[in-house]
Amino acid sequence: MHRVFDTRIFHKECASLSKKYEVYLVASNVESQVKDGIHIIGVKMPPHGIRKMLTTKPVIEAARSVDADIYHFHDPELMRAGLKLKKAGKKVIFDYHENYAEFLLTKDWIPRIFRKVASKFFLMAERMCLAKYDAIVSVTPFIIDRLKNYNKHVYQITNYPKFIDIPDKREWGQNVCFVGGIVPQWMHHNIVKSLVQTNAKYELAGMAAPESYLEEMKQDEGWHKVDYYGRIDYADLFPFLQKSSAGVAIRTYNDPNVGYKKGSLGVNKFFEYMMAGIPVICSGAEVWKEIIEKYKCGMIVDPDDCDSIAAAINYIINNPAEARMMGDNGQRAAKEIYNWATQESILFDMYENVLNNKQ
After folding, report:
1. Which of 355, 357, 359 is nearest to 17 (CA)?
2. Helix (H, G, I), strand (E, B) or coil at 283
């Protein structure tokens, strides 16, 4: 279900593992090729939707053709299929990206009356399957804690970005920015409404889902203060971020996929803002609040309170010296802790333990 060049799968995990192992990536609807030393095996799949979710045979056949020592799965649709390889004597790892069981409660393609049943059924299947895997990976503490009830070999490997030394071209003007999904969970509607109380521009990049959400925001009074860029290339990310005095990561507390108010360390943008050296204006999810308070690298707001959002934006743009200090603090923390190199070492340890039965 993931794109072949998914940031976590291809650019982080596969790229790191290729330093030590021969790596094959089975991916849907892509030409077989070798890229950056990684062998990509393309399989033909239905383009999207339920049919794609239920079609596992081509993937498993392609995986078996490799005859690998370790199989590392990323899609919940393949949890049961992975057990077939386990029965064949293979080592099997499952990478648990999302809070899948509760995520089903929010899916519009499941009729509302069936969502709780679907979630409970998934939890039963999850417990049965993951108990038999050699290792499980997830991205954030609240998911890790649940998975440890099934399997004692659980590793936290987050989505921290690869650290790069970025030339300091920060501008400290009157812009704040967001890069990522233009979806209701990121509370863009409240951010746009809050702009009327500020002198700030909202530099907004990403794709809207649904598109109607973007169209609805265009009717808001604050939309004239939004510059919308659509999707931007990763190569342009950090120059884009440094044009702003803060990065915005304001997420609703009503999202089960991030554990409601617990929050997730699997959100790239939070740490990319830190790496760019700009303060983070974010909602008070537990894992984010801990980082903001410890490193003094941003400000916490109430995602449902436009006055709170506006006050934080005004404080940042009206106090550039303090904003720079927050940005510097975050950048140091990103360089020392919140970067992919720290996670790569955990990934290598896990593979070594699985291969050599050290668990």
Report:
1. 355
2. strand
Report DSSP state, residue 247.
E
Residue 187 and residue 303 in contact, taking contact as beta carbons nearer than 8 Å: yes
Whether 137 and 155 have beta carbons less than 8 Å apart is answered as yes
- Integer Cα distance of 165 and 339 in angstroms: 12
CB 22 within 8 A of CB 39: yes
CA separation for the pair 65, 249 (Å, rounded): 43
Q: Rounded CA gap, 58 and 344, in Å?
A: 30
CA–CA dist 103, 254 (Å, integer): 11
Q: Are 30 and 47 in contact (CB under 8 A)?
A: no
The alpha-helical segments, DSSP class H, found in the chain are: 15-17, 49-54, 57-66, 79-87, 100-103, 112-130, 141-147, 188-194, 211-217, 237-241, 268-276, 286-295, 306-318, 320-336, 340-355
Q: Do 186 and 251 touch, CB atoms closer than 8 A?
A: yes
Return the residue matching tokens 């971020």: 241
Query: Could you tell me how far CA 200 lies from the centroid of its own chain?
Result: 27
Residues in the chain: 359
Distance from C-alpha of 263 to C-alpha of 285, rounded to nearest angstrom = 5
Q: How far from 356 is each of 66, 337, 351, 359, CA to CA, in Å?
A: 20, 28, 8, 8
- For every residue of 192-203, DSSP letters joined together read HHHGGGSS-EEE
Q: Tell me the per-residue pLDDT of 18-72, one tens digit each, with 9 for 90 and over.
A: 999 999 999 988 999 999 999 999 888 776 666 656 678 888 899 999 999 999 9
pLDDT at 119: 80
